[in-house]
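Newbie here. two chains, one complex. Structure please?
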Amino acid sequence: MNTRKTNAKTNAWTSAWLTVLKRDLLLALRRRSDIATTLFFFVIVSSLFPLGIGPEAAVLSSIAPGVLWVAALLAGMISLSRLFAADFTDGTLEQMLLAPQPLAWLVTAKILAHWLVCGLPVVLLAPLIGLQYALPNEALLVLVYSLLLGTPALSLIGAIGAALTLGVRGSGLLVALLVLPLYIPALIFGAGAVAASQHGMSAQAHLSLLAACSLLSLVLAPLATAAALRISVE
Amino acid sequence: MHIHWFKYSSPQTFYPLAGKMIPWFAALAVLLTIAGLYVSFAIAPTDFQQGEAYRIIFVHVPAAWMSMFIYIVMAGWAALGLGFNARLSAMMAQALAPTGAIFTLLALVTGSLWGKPMWGAWWVWDARLTSELILLFLYLGFMALQSSIDDPRRADRAGALLALVGVVNVPIIYFSVKWWNTLHQGSTINMGVAPKMAMTMLLGMLLMALAFWMYSIAVALMRVRCIMLERERSTDWVKALSTGGQA
């Protein structure tokens, strides 16, 4: 009896989680221009730097890790305001708050959807931009690894900022002020991993720390986001 | 003797108490500042390596201490406010933020004034300078968030959550910046003050730190009194105050 109850509960949790994930992905697919905006932003920002600095390959490849990571950070950030805004306006968020499943659990599905829509494309596009910056092959590989490990942390931490600024005037700029300082560790380890591999050192330590950042935010950020959503919605 | 600890947790009773405490803390701040400045400028010996320019640390180091300490205290008040739904705690957190931000700015400015003669540069991407700058960003984010939310209760709770997230992140940011710094710079710059400080130097620094502490309390209490009046303006006790009643 007891096991059947827990089974039913687990099933309800899983199906609710999958529903939220599918719904957010479907909504994103229906509005493809949103995904494109994030990607183009990433491409344009990282293409502006060579124009400002000059085309010397040596200079470009030395600034590439930092520039690409900052561009990825900003691209992830500008899409944050969309994370909860539509659900907040049409009342879906209130239903999620009332759902029998914990809000923090449902929030992880929304964050995963945000990462799949805004983070993953940037990860896949980054090596192309890296080529423009004359990055060697191993560094390109490390760049992809570091973004793959680090961008989830960006989405997770960003969700706290998005939840806190929900329905606040000027929330787009405010989110930048709240979230960017918290992104600094990910930036340091991510860009550091690429730079280390450029200098012929092992990127292992940086990547491990980056993964640690992501895991820590995976544990704490959904709880904080759920608390922030309750504050914002009530 | 039975003490009613929560008596002063309501703005109405705390307002007059704060009013009585302010002159004491302000007087202590002035006295300690005079003593501290006297010790640091008249008694403390000239540093044999850094000359007279080192004396800026008597303002710089206490300001840096206070900037970090106030952030922790602010987060503590915020957590109390969030946990117990206590209005006054949230007001204290809000009142402390500008003071903390000012000390952070002061630490940055005095740091760069010290850096120019010592390192030959106004700004060096040193781990401590950089994390102090990030701390300033955290303060600014806290204040920006609170001031952009119109409903004061929501502003309190949102700000409190942000302060708590910040407290969790501060050590991570500090160590990542420190590590970043050692990777990029090597040990060309030795930032440490002379390993053995003269007793009077330490005394001057401690006196200044205490003076800043008292100043922070006095100013935070003044600010919290303003916040209380503003937020409770529709209550009877504030109306009684404004019509000339004694509180």
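Moderator note: The interface with chain B takes residues 160, 164-165, 168-171, 174, 177-178, 180-182, 184-185, 188-189, 192, 209, 213, 216, 220, 224, 227-228, 231-232, 234 of chain A (CB under 8 Å). DSSP finds nine helices and no strands in chain A. Thread marked as resolved.
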